[in-house]
Write a structure and sequence with these properties.
The protein is of the alpha+beta class. It has one domain: Nuclear Transport Factor 2, Chain: A, CATH 3.10.450. Helices cover 21% and strands 45% of the residues. The protein is built from three helices and six strands; from the N terminus they run H-H-E-E-H-E-E-E-E. It has a six-stranded mixed beta sheet. 12% of the residues are buried.
Length: 170
Amino acid sequence: MTATPPRVDIETRMAVHDLLVDEAALLDAGRYEEWLELFTDDVEYVAPIRVTRKTGNPDVVEEICWFDDNRQSLELRVRRLGTPVAWAEDPRSMTRRFVTNLRITANEDGYQVVGNLMLFRSRGDHGRYDLIVGERTDHLRWVAGELKISRRRVLLDQASLGTKNLGIFL
């Protein structure tokens, strides 16, 4: 049996939980500029591709990603959403994010948070919707007294996405 990593104190747990719940609310409300402020300047935000392979072979391809963003590319994506050429998100998707099963451990410069993400996304008036589900690993650290996201890795539970585009943030 492997040792369980040490748990963080309740105040830290609540600060982490509040940050991630607030982040989901900002995204669902389309408040992207405020959402950007939750990230460090050196943020890495990736979603590697998952593949279906026989047992014993890796099922994640780290070199190919659904997206591989840094602070600058996140800012460009947010800015683009405010223009008339963001066709994939005009009108904006109706979304609801569920962030749950958080496992929080302290590390050398902050905290690692592994949790589950479920994203409900509806577009238009057709009654169709997407469910995007996966595991999210966040690295958080304190910057000027605020807890911020310095790295995010999203591993989707699908080898082939059913959604027509990923013009949204996970």
